[in-house]
């Protein structure tokens, strides 16, 4: 099971990636505090990815509203 290098560098940013493939690289005797920090970092990365998608969606909605308002200003009702 080999992964392309680009997929390995994007594991934390991609919530759909298989994180089990990166586990063998970590020693079993890893410091529990470091393990918790890595898990928290991965969760934070997933949340950031979700929030970025939500921001993009809101920007699209605002662009549609702006376009609608511009049309109203350019073509007022009699």
Q: Can you put this structure into words, describing what you see?
A:
- 0% of the residues are buried.
- 62% of the residues lie in helices and 0% in strands.
- The protein contains two helices and no strands.
- The chain has a domain at 31-77.
- The termini are far apart.
- The protein is mainly α and 78 residues long.
Q: Descriptors for this entry?
A:
78 residues; mainly alpha; disordered N terminus
Task: Briefly summarize what is shown.
It is built from two helices and no strands.
The rounded Rg comes to: 22 Å
Which percent band covers the strand fraction? under 5%
Q: What's the overall geometry?
A: rod-shaped
Question: Uncertain segments of ≥5 residues (pLDDT<50)?
Answer: 1-11
Amount of helix: 55-70%
DSSP E strands, number: 0
**Biggest sheet layout:** none
The average pLDDT score comes to 79
Report how far the terminal alpha carbons are from each other.
69 Å
Category by helix and strand content: mainly alpha
Helix and strand pattern: HH
Number of helices: 2
